[in-house]
Sequence to fold (352 residues):
Amino acid sequence: MAGLSPITADIGCKLVQEIVKDGDEISDKYVSKDFQYGAIDDDVPIMDIPVVDMKVLTSSSACGREELGKLQSALSSWGCFQAINHGIEESLLDEVHKVSRQFFDLSMEEKQKYARAADDIDGYGNDMVLYENQTLDWNDRIYLKVHPENDRKLKYWPENPKSFREILEEYTSRSKLIAEELLKYMARCLNLPDDRFLKQYGDRPVIYARFNFYPPCPRPKLVRGLKSHADGTAITILLQDKEVEGLQVLKDNKWYRVPIMPYALLVIVGDQVEIMSNGLLKSPVHRAVTNSEKERITVAMFCSPESGIDIEPVEELIDDKRPRLYKTAKDYLATYFQYYQQGKRPIDVVKI
Ligand SMILES: O=C(O)CCC(=O)C(=O)O
Ligand SMILES: [Fe+2]
Fold:
């Protein structure tokens, strides 16, 4: 896909929910062209996903140390794990699922009140179309910056369903705490001082919420819900659909299906933690696939370092045996989407 020509402004495209409603033929623009990671096979195996108990992680007993070992092994192999006992009540997670579904179930006219402007990322709609021949994803989403609070663009925050804002607010503050806890344990599992990653993460992390809606797709073998990518975050916390599977993770050039575990949170390492850990913790390539029968809704909380801070491998993880693998990156997110939409990995640009 190297030869994609950039477009000066977002040219937009029809919402997938509208394509389904109107019964349109699916354009070839949705057909996945990047086969660098292989085609969608029918027989992708289910992954034996690591499960980390966050309550046990905080204990100073032998069990705590064992759990820390599990965290380290999960993140240096898969780059993700299911977090259980994370402290968020099931009732709050149920509410997050509920308001997400209620929002996507609203009439198009009502949802369009929060429509993304052509030059904006936040808002309801689809992702920007920045390149001619860009492969389109079978995904409508509402994308909202939730932290720092002063940067929120409230005009895009749904007021319908009524409790949407309140639930999102609560879920944001809880996710923020979990991300900070996890950064502490990620440092600890590499024998670093607890604040080693948190220092680079900063006091004003940038957090986006992304509500993903994937309608049933008539061409599931050819069309992806989200093209293969790794997240540009420090950490992503994903609330999966409770019933419909669709996420796949790449490991050693093979795809694996991520199983559903109700009320667990799927934690995915982002590129910026891979950089800070000098490659010891992996930011995994993943994709969402589609299916022809059921719609699927997921909610991702993208937790990234405060803007303007240099992100670089921490000194303790660089030595003669393990030289520095990444250059210093600043405002990594700023260029993320350009690479993403070309099917490229932004982390390759900062690799030494
Ligand atoms: O919906 C999913 O399962 C994956 C979402 C995802 O990877 C993303 O939003 O970056
Ligand atoms: Fe992702």
About this structure: Residues 210, 212, 226, 231, 238, 246-247, 286, 288, 298, 300 surround 2-oxoglutaric acid (ligand 1) (CB under 6 Å).
